[in-house]
Amino acid sequence: MQIVALAFLAVALAAPQGDKKPVEIISSNSEMNADGSYSFAFESEDGTKVSESGSQKQVGPKPEDIGTVSKGSYSYTSPDGVVITVNWVADENGFQATGDHLPTPPPMPEHVVKMLADLKAAGLL
């Protein structure tokens, strides 16, 4: 039953959206190199911009521990007219995104900072 409901939902979402025309891509480029490095970028007529580049990197102790390290950005205009930009890196430390609109955690309480420093000094951290 759930599969049938999901199928109907997929068909409904794929249906034409009235008189909305597709957004045109006004610039696009991509490059793939023999060493595994790559880059691509595009911009659409609505001001959306996307760019990404990456390369192969040894991410572990063994020569075969190779992974792709990537970085990029994307931006778009929100419904209220504000340009939203996200810069990101994806590497052996995971995915890290930054942007003025993204929430940030509150500062750590001073007693927690002291406790962590004490644990580090004691060799427990």
From TrEMBL:
A single Gene Ontology MF term assigned here is: structural constituent of chitin-based larval cuticle
Record region (Disordered): 37-73
Q: Which GO terms describe its cellular component?
A: chitin-based extracellular matrix
In terms of superkingdom, the source organism counts as: Eukaryota
Pfam families per record: Chitin_bind_4
Known InterPro entries for this protein? Cuticle_Struct_Prot, Insect_cuticle
Keywords tagged on the record: Cuticle
PANTHER family named among the record's database cross-references: CUTICLE PROTEIN (PTHR10380), CUTICULAR PROTEIN 47EF, ISOFORM C-RELATED (PTHR10380:SF173)
Instruction: Indicate what this protein is called per its UniProt record.
Output: Endocuticle structural glycoprotein SgAbd-2
